[in-house]
Write a structure and sequence with these properties.
Radius of gyration: 26 Å
Number of strands: 0
Number of domains: 2
Structural class: mainly alpha
Order of helices and strands: HHHHHHHHHHHHHHHH
Largest sheet: none
Shape: elongated
Number of helices: 16
Strand content: under 5%
Length: about 280
């Protein structure tokens, strides 16, 4: 009697059979899973190590967006199942882009109080972020008494907290959105401490994509904000000094607003950020 061997299911492979860390390897895994049908996407032994690798691979990206590593799973899994991923020249690039958009959508969705799906699409985002009760009101404490010549206050304005508050208030009063200014100013001040010169700070910060994306600014708007904060170290006139330099030298908000050139530059940059 001749025995007919049982057919081997198409997904009867282990993670050792395929190097899914490469684009060709991932393509083979995706084709194998697709040929196994819906059941393969739930029970295949290929899936568990692949998903574990995805979490490990994208953990640094998740941390850059202040998210948990597990937050990458949903969008990565959807990208894996998309028919076009296996046909792409680089399937991993498709997965990476899906994870980036997913993390950005989660962050922007929370900030804008909308769904991550809408937050991924700039055309569907709210025109401005909602401001929660009590948010940013500390920027406006003491505005009416801004000319007070109290020695304690003058010393405070030269400290880190005073520097951030005064700079942030000036930016808000020249048109910048309150939802981004404090985070932007704190970040720039902290980065300045580790950079060797004003010129290198300007170059490095203008190219800093991580904070730009977290703030939801275009490249042009972020470069404009950096220029307002740092000035132009290569200039030979008053444009050489940005808002931070003026505040460190003792300028208060009223004096900054009386500087027509500085105020005009900040207003122009803030108008571009809203387009």
């Amino acid at each position: 009697m001749t025995r007919t061997p049982n057919p081997v299911p198409p997904d009867r492979h282990t993670s050792e059979d395929v190097d899914y860390t490469t684009s060709d390897g991932l393509r083979r895994v995706l084709n194998t899973l697709a040929s196994g049908g819906e059941q393969a996407w739930r029970t295949s032994p290929l899936l568990t190590p692949l998903l574990a690798f995805i979490v490990e691979k994208y953990t640094p990206l998740a941390h850059a967006w202040h998210r948990e590593p597990g937050d990458v799973m949903y969008d990565a899994y959807r990208a894996l199942r998309a028919p076009g991923t296996a046909r792409a020249r680089d399937p991993w690039a498709i997965v990476t882009r899906a994870v980036e958009l997913g993390l950005a959508g989660e962050v922007h969705g929370e900030r804008l109080m909308t769904s991550p799906d809408k937050a991924r699409r700039p055309s569907k985002r709210p025109d401005s972020a909602p401001i929660r009760s009590g948010e940013y009101e500390e920027f406006f404490y003491g505005v009416l008494a801004i000319g007070d010549a109290e020695s304690g206050r003058e010393r405070e304005e030269r400290t880190g907290s005073g520097l951030v508050r005064t700079t942030s208030l000036f930016l808000v009063m020249t048109g910048w959105s309150p939802r981004i200014v404090e985070a932007a100013v704190i970040y720039v001040v902290e980065r300045l401490a580790s950079l060797s010169s004003a010129e290198s700070a300007l170059d490095v910060l203008r190219k800093d994509e991580a904070i730009r994306l977290r703030l939801g600014l275009s490249s042009r708007s972020w470069a404009g904000l950096v220029r307002v904060l740092l000035g132009n170290p290569r200039a030979r006139d008053r444009g050489r000094y940005g808002v931070l330099a003026h505040v460190v030298l003792g300028a208060q908000v009223r004096e900054l607003l009386f500087d027509d050139a500085l105020t005009a530059m900040s207003r122009r940059a803030s108008e571009r950020s809203r387009r």
